Amino acid sequence: MADNEKLYLPAGSAVNGPCALDIDPGRAGWGYTALRVLELTSDGSYDFMTGDSEWIVLPLAGGCTVHTQDRHFELRGRESVFGGVTDFAYVPRDSRAQITSGAGGRFALAGARCERRLPARYGPAPEVPVELRGTGGCSRQVNNFAAADSFECDRLIAVEVLTPAGNWSSYPPHKHDQHRPGEESELEEIYYFEFARQGGFGYHRVSPSRPGGADVLAEVRTGDAVLIPDGWHGPSIAAPGHDMYYLNVMAGPGETREWLIRDHPDHAWIRDTWPEQPADPRLPLHGPEDTP
């Protein structure tokens, strides 16, 4: 049974040292998915052991250098999550890693417990697939930097979603909390939110898919996170005047790393209306070519 009061984490409620947000499987009460948001001052550094998890270092604001396995990766990064697609670095399990930043910045560490130890790698920004999903008021942009079919990981799946002001994202509501071969994956998920303007906000809904399941209706702002152990999730609604960003981090027990979802039966028909409408002309908010 979900402890719904612990599924919404407002900014500042999960601080750990230089990490403004630190969610590990123990804190979340599940088996695999983790997320840290690291804040470094000028000439700052952060050392960590990866343990039994694989990690992706993703610049949110600023650039950094990632040292691991006798390799180092210079991440150019970006001014903000609304400023362009970023490069990133993959750090394998059972490794020591260090992140340094001359100018400082904010960096997401998306992680997942895993079995295989894959090589450390660099992910170039121009190779990140940028997808426009939905149409009309459901239009949003998805940066598939570590989607299941775009970048190899053992269990980790992670994408960025940018939603223009006033639009509904993560819609129609969908779920991935059961193993149904060829139809649905079992995946835990974390949503981490940022907004383009000061005072920006939106709303996020998770409704139960089973008795006693996850049930959240939260007003979300920059730095907030929502944990989704199960349930129908969506919509994520961007308030008028406020473009919204969220980072999705997922992992689960399935033998195959895949993102298979089931739409809520009351709203699945909405997806069929998309070919009848144009995409929001504000999209894409940016592409790989816009990265500074």
Automatic annotation (TrEMBL):
Pfam families: KduI. Keywords: Isomerase. GO terms for molecular function: isomerase activity. Gene3D superfamilies: Jelly Rolls. Residues 272-292 are annotated as: Disordered. PANTHER family: 5-DEOXY-GLUCURONATE ISOMERASE. This is 5-deoxy-glucuronate isomerase. It comes from Streptomyces sannanensis.
